[in-house]
Amino acid sequence: MQSDLRATARRRPSIVIVGASLAGLRAAEELRRRGYEGTLTVVGDEPHLPYDRPPLSKQVLAGEWDPDHLPLTVQSDGGIGGLDVDWRLGARATDLDLATKTVELDVAGRPERLGFDGLVIATGATPRHLPTDGLDGIHTLRTLDDCLAIRAGLDGTPRRVVVVGAGFVGAEVAATCRARGLEVTLLEALPVPMERAIGAEMGSLMADIHRDHGVDVRLGVGVDRFEGGARVERVHLADGTTVEADVVVVGVGVVPNTGWLEGSGLTLDNGVVCDATTLAAPGVVAAGDVARWTSARFGGPIRVEHWDNAVDMGEHAAQRLLTDAVQDPVPYDPVPWFWSDQYDRKVQLSGIAAGADEVQVVDGSLEERRFAAIYRRGDRITAVLAMNRPRLVVKCKPLVAQGATWAEALAALG
Amino acid sequence: MGYRVVVDFDLCESNARCMEAAPEVFEVRDDDFLYVLIEEPPEEMRPLVEEAVRRCPKAAITIAED
Hints:
The structure holds two protein chains of two kinds.
Chain A: H1 2-7, E1 14-18, H2 22-33, E2 39-44, H3 59-62, E3 86-89, E4 91-97, E5 102-107, E6 110-115, E7 118-121, E8 125-127, E9 138-140, H4 144-155, E10 161-164, H5 168-179, E11 184-188, H6 195-198, H7 200-212, E12 216-219, E13 223-228, E14 232-237, E15 242-244, E16 247-250, E17 254-256, E18 272-273, E19 279-281, E20 284-286, E21 291-295, E22 300-302, H8 307-322, E23 337-342, E24 345-351, E25 358-365, E26 370-377, E27 380-387, H9 390-401, H10 406-413
Parallel strand pairs in A: 1-2, 1-7, 2-3, 7-20, 9-16, 10-11, 10-16, 11-12, 18-21
Antiparallel strand pairs in A: 4-5, 5-6, 8-17, 13-14, 14-15, 19-20, 21-22, 23-24, 24-27, 25-26, 26-27
Helix pairs in contact in A: 2-8
Chain B: E1 3-7, H1 17-21, E2 26-28, E3 34-36, H2 46-55, E4 61-65
Antiparallel strand pairs in B: 1-4, 2-3
């Protein structure tokens, strides 16, 4: 970047961030914090300034918070205004030309071209949809507008809400609907929910917790089709049964938003493929839900959909963009961390539980619904999961970070 | 120029990210509540406190300049 600054002294360097949610915001903040003084443009396809998504399946859906209360901290003098960003909201990126270093936008049907010296790709992901045959009342949940549409449906006191998919978004939606006193059926196509994320034993525990709260949990069954007049009235399941429903929320995963990058020359494979330092191409970095990077900790390419990764990676990608090519760029390889709040339980996972050989409770018990458990793969601790024991995640995480042996971990926690 | 750590306990949900970033300032105890150990940390701790602010999933921490 320094050589660029000298060579183009007559005009200010420009960085474009495509994606105006958490990763894009954190990248913008980090650029300014590191002293970047050139122009900074952030493009977002939603009409909103960056806002926080986790409350969309919880407080906002519950009606506890207003839509304008979705706070994200902004570290600069003067808050978000102090970042000196040109916000291009309601603008959808449609093309990237690496040869001319331009991004093409669709702004209310009009094409626009944005030139850049440096580019941050943070376009996130879009929920997978099921065929709805045009029926109203079937929703996915990603954006504030999605949340408000679902909330309007819940405000109409539906007979029953069907949530398709017992991943973390679906599970939180189910919990929020139950807390609103609604009848809920939670469907999961796999025999155990969240098995890949937290393992079979813990996934089964989560299903039990939902049943404890009166949710009709059905595992190992998928949706065949939806039926209704103008609105959905019932769901036909793959096992031949039906469930009456006035509101359906589909949470069956997300697809990274890389369509606009087709033909750009970037490698796209379940996300924008980056090296170990978040670099996708010279002068181009990626961060957040859209980014797939090489992790030494994971042993290969990984794409992480957690809030914490958007923060961490957004900051790292910004630093990477400002790193001179001759220096040793720092690899991005954090220990993943996420949390999920369902009812009065807070589940946190640090590390990677996928592919674990064993999970062992080291504090509390599953019965109490308050515990900490560690996972191992081979002889090393790979993750810690805690339910209502946040202190223990902080205590266990260094063991995960350093790849402690199982014996070392058990000794430290004994 | 000093500063104070301010936590909005209505927003705090004890995710303990602050404790991980700045354990000398923030502690989530076995009662699951957050305790601010040093309300006016020394200047050299400011980067860690700022990291705690950025990492808090509930945007519950602010820095009040004196």
